[in-house]
């Protein structure tokens, strides 16, 4: 069988370590897993980076994206070797839609009031703006459901998202041509769960699972996340083609 490589894409205010509990379980089960860093500079640029990363992988790829990572896989997932998409508390954008527009449909979220904005230099241009979560409220808003000790580490090591990414429209929507699966975190205080539900329903995902989990479902409920990823993996895994007649001596 040709089993896809699982590529896990982190979101804003986090890095690849946010997938660690899921990554460990998948590796222990014998799966091939890669967790690339996302620059978090712009939706278009981040998606191009991840698409390039994916296209250099030999064989099929199953993409899983958390939060902002869902928007990234929506665009990067058009890569030819991507065979499926898994959204984990993620943004399933429509073609021509931005994060801000989708979020704005269901604005009831605790995140906006707990964001911190910081300038960063851009060579030859006006400074950009980094967005991060207030360290003091990080546990409550972004990392509810995990231990205080874990949340403190994540808070001081979070990877900001450039503000420009919120307004960039997705040029494509991979879910139009690739099968998808979705996880809704019912106890999400970062993204309104209705944003997740709406995006998944509109995308016509094959299966949507709702779990009693906070935004960081991969840390709080890794077994449930792994179960959805493995279900998707089983459905997109295809038999290897038999060699052509006369190919073997």
UniProtKB/TrEMBL annotation:
<dbReference type="InterPro" id="IPR052897">
    <property type="entry name" value="Sec-Metab_Biosynth_Hydrolase"/>
</dbReference>
<dbReference type="Pfam" id="PF12697">
    <property type="entry name" value="Abhydrolase_6"/>
</dbReference>
<protein>
    <submittedName>
        <fullName>Thioesterase domain-containing protein</fullName>
    </submittedName>
</protein>
<dbReference type="InterPro" id="IPR029058">
    <property type="entry name" value="AB_hydrolase_fold"/>
</dbReference>
<dbReference type="InterPro" id="IPR000073">
    <property type="entry name" value="AB_hydrolase_1"/>
</dbReference>
<dbReference type="GO" id="GO:0003824">
    <property type="term" value="F:catalytic activity"/>
</dbReference>
<feature type="domain" description="AB hydrolase-1">
    <location>
        <begin position="6"/>
        <end position="227"/>
    </location>
</feature>
């Amino acid at each position: 069988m040709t089993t896809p490589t699982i590529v896990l894409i982190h979101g804003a205010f986090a890095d690849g370590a946010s997938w660690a509990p899921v990554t460990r379980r998948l590796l222990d089960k014998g799966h091939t897993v890669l967790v690339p860093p996302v620059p978090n500079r712009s939706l278009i640029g981040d998606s191009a980076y991840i698409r390039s990363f994916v296209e250099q992988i030999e064989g099929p790829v199953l993409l899983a994206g958390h939060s902002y990572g869902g928007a990234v896989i929506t665009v990067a997932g058009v890569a030819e070797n991507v065979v499926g998409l898994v959204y984990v508390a993620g943004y399933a954008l429509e073609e021509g839609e931005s994060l801000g527009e989708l979020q704005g449909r269901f604005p009831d979220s605790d995140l906006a009031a707990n964001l911190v904005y910081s300038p960063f230099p851009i060579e030859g241009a006006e400074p950009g703006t980094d967005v991060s979560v207030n360290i003091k409220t990080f546990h409550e808003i972004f990392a509810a459901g995990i231990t205080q000790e874990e949340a403190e580490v994540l808070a001081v090591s979070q990877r900001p998202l450039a503000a420009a990414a919120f307004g960039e429209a997705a040029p494509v929507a991979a879910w139009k041509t690739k099968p998808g699966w979705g996880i809704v975190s019912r106890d999400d205080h970062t993204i309104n769960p209705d944003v997740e539900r709406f995006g998944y329903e509109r995308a016509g995902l094959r299966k949507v699972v709702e779990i009693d989990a906070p935004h960081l479902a991969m840390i709080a409920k890794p077994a449930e996340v792994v179960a959805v990823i493995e279900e998707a993996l089983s459905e997109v895994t295809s038999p290897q083609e038999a060699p052509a007649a006369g190919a073997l001596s």
